[in-house]
């Protein structure tokens, strides 16, 4: 008898459900952070049409949280509605701090460019080798994330025309604060996620949906660099920042604030 599982057997296996629990709960955390980030940004926006647009983006992200939670109930895997991993808390804190300083530019770069880049890559990955319910939801969320990313690119492009120095300053600051944390999220070495979901770290493995994490990180860097090029940032100023993305080992990322780790440390 062949050892190759049929699609039905594979998606009903415990390993598949554990992996989806891990990925989808992490994605829900990112979506909750996005709701927080957009609502933090809204009071800083003077233009009423733009303000309304960002409120709509916050509502989109809230819809993603609820749709992903429903998916979990339907496909039957555990999930949580909360921000579990410390990276999300650190990125959220960066956006809050910059908002407190009135630095809307850094907030837009962090959320609309950096976080949304990873969102598009994550929802592309969730359309590969998954079940039909997950594929179809990931495809519809993907389209909204692409629109958020494009909106951010257009906004920063306009801001660059007005004050290039301010955009480069904000970009450098956001890159250093957000990108190492985002890169480390593309990893199966969680801090406490498996523990909180009551799944075994060892069952969360690449083989189940044949995702190549190195390739996912490369896809994220490619998308990021393409958007930076599209915005029109000065290559001489941004190029030195990119080397750390390629050279750093993402599993080495550690939270600055130990209180950000909830639950029992598991896979690290
Ligand atoms: Fe989203
Ligand atoms: Fe989004």
UniProtKB/TrEMBL annotation:
InterPro entries linked to this entry: Ald_deCOase (IPR022612), Ferritin-like (IPR012347), Ferritin-like_SF (IPR009078)
Gene3D superfamilies, A to Z: 1.20.1260.10
Top-level taxon in the UniProt lineage: Bacteria
Pfam families attached to this UniProt entry: Ald_deCOase (PF11266)
SUPFAM superfamilies, alphabetized: Ferritin-like (SSF47240)
Coiled coil: none
The protein's name in its UniProt record: Long-chain fatty aldehyde decarbonylase
Protein species of origin: Enterovibrio gelatinilyticus
């Amino acid at each position: 008898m062949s050892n190759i599982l049929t699609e039905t057997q594979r998606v009903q296996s415990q390993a598949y459900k554990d992996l989806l629990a891990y990925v989808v709960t992490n994605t829900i955390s990112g979506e909750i952070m996005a709701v927080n980030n957009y609502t933090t940004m809204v009071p800083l926006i003077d233009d009423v049409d733009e303000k309304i647009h960002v409120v709509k983006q916050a509502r989109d992200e809230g819809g993603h949280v609820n749709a992903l939670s429903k998916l979990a109930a339907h496909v039957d895997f555990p999930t949580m509605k909360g921000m579990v991993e410390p990276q999300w808390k650190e990125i959220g804190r960066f956006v809050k701090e910059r908002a407190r300083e009135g630095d809307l530019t850094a907030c837009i770069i962090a959320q609309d460019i950096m976080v949304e880049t990873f969102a598009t890559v994550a929802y592309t990955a969730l359309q590969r080798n998954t079940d039909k319910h997950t594929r179809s939801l990931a495809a519809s969320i993907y389209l909204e994330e692409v629109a958020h990313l494009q909106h951010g690119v257009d906004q920063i492009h306009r801001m660059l025309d007005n004050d290039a120095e301010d955009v480069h300053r904000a970009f450098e600051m956001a890159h250093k604060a957000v990108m190492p944390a985002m890169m480390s999220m593309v990893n199966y070495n969680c801090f406490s996620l498996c523990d909180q979901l009551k799944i075994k770290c060892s069952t969360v493995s690449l083989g189940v949906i044949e995702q190549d994490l190195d390739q996912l990180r490369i896809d994220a860097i490619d998308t990021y660099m393409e958007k930076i090029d599209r915005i029109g940032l000065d290559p001489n100023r941004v190029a030195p920042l990119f080397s750390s993305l390629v050279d750093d080992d993402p599993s080495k990322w550690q939270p600055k604030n130990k209180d950000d780790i909830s639950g029992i440390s598991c896979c690290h």
